């Protein structure tokens, strides 16, 4: 069996961002759910029990909650890529997977997009 990389997962974090193609849809922030999976080697952190040697998921969550302040996006695809790039730049995981769920279609539970970046 192939070894799976160590990972930290934040699942369905509720955020409010201004997003949507029509201007009126972006006028007010709307609820989105974000899932972020970050791969990282836990060997040193687990061996020393030291938070500085891993990714602080609380800090990531706080950053995601603030990420939409003063910004807006037309496409959830753009948002997902922007989140992935920010996490790679600021938190330095080996890779990141981002899923964005949007609740816009009345006859569907949600619409989602996902991206993975090394």
Q: Short description, anyone?
A:
This protein has 118 residues and is an alpha+beta fold.
What is the topology?
Elements: E1 7-19, H1 23-26, E2 30-39, H2 43-48, H3 57-67, E3 72-73, H4 76-91, E4 95-102, E5 111-117
Parallel strand pairs: 1-3
Antiparallel strand pairs: 1-2, 2-4, 4-5
Description:
By secondary structure, this protein is an alpha+beta fold. It has a single domain, classed as GTP Cyclohydrolase I, domain 2 (2-Layer Sandwich). It has four helices and five strands, in the order βαβααβαββ. The protein has helices at 23-26, 43-48, 57-67, 76-91, and strands at residues 7-19, 30-39, 72-73, 95-102, 111-117. The chain has a five-stranded mixed sheet. A hairpin with an 8-residue loop joins β4 and β5. The radius of gyration is 16 Å and the shape is elongated. The two termini are 22 Å apart. The mean pLDDT is 96.
What string gives the helices and strands in order?
A: EHEHHEHEE
End-to-end distance: 22 Å
Question: Structural class, from helix and strand content?
Answer: alpha+beta
Helix content: 25-40%
What is Rg?
16 Å
* Relevant CATH superfamily: GTP cyclohydrolase I, C-terminal domain/NADPH-dependent 7-cyano-7-deazaguanine reductase, N-terminal domain
Spatial arrangement of strands, main beta sheet:
3-1-2-4-5
CATH top level assignment = Alpha Beta
